[in-house]
Design brief:
It is a single chain. The chain is α+β, with helices and mostly antiparallel strands. The protein is built from one helix and ten strands; from the N terminus they run H-E-E-E-E-E-E-E-E-E-E. Strands 1, 2, 3, 4, 5, 6, 7, 8, 9 and 10 form a ten-stranded mixed sheet that branches. A hairpin with a 2-residue loop joins strand 4 and strand 5. The chain is elongated. The relative contact order is 0.21.
Length: 180
């Protein structure tokens, strides 16, 4: 009788240990997203616009584009670059306080759009910086921007150009790559 009780207790103990191990394994697996869809499919872009510019200055003009980018997935997505047919280059910029002076510079590592969150790009904050604009971008014109994500996926954003008098920054690059 005692031997049967000991065997039964050992089986129950083994079953309980296996159950605990299975629950721990499932918990470890559930912390990572199983969503393997392209990062571009996770985002929705809204209120996108680009600042109208003449684009006829020596070396090309500069302007910026802004938007709200929402991420509906359960994982962060990262924007690593952008391009457009209206400028030689589009950089990902941020504005930082540098000793009491605001400085615009290229954002290291790109823009992170948090899981189930959003990134709002506004004048004076993060934005797409168009450099080497070769022709005027007039108010009312649509400007296509290709946004590339860390996984290599892309999405096209059509931004409406509009006049904007705010944030008349002086973009004069110094040797560190920053613009003031």
């Amino acid at each position: 009788m005692a031997r049967r009780h000991i065997l039964r207790s050992a089986r129950l103990t083994a079953l309980a240990a296996a159950t605990v191990a299975s629950i721990a394994l499932l918990g470890a697996c559930s912390t990572d997203s199983t969503d393997n869809s392209p990062e571009a499919d996770a985002v929705t872009v809204s209120v996108q616009w680009v600042k109208a510019v003449e684009g006829d200055s020596p070396g090309g003009g500069m302007t910026a584009a802004f938007a709200k980018i929402a991420n509906g997935s359960d994982r962060d997505v990262r924007i690593v670059s952008a391009s457009s047919g209206v400028s030689e280059q589009v950089q990902l910029h941020e504005v930082v306080d540098s000793g009491g002076t605001t400085t615009m510079k290229e954002k290291d590592g790109g823009f992170v759009v948090p899981s189930n969150g959003s990134l709002t790009m506004t004048p004076g904050g993060e934005h797409f910086m168009f450099m080497g604009v070769q022709r005027p971008i007039r108010a009312g014109q649509q400007v296509a921007i290709t946004v590339r994500f860390a996984d290599g996926s892309t999405t096209r954003v059509d931004a409406l150009a509009r006049d904007f008098d705010g944030n008349q920054e002086n973009y004069s690059p110094d040797h560190s790559g920053e613009h003031r």
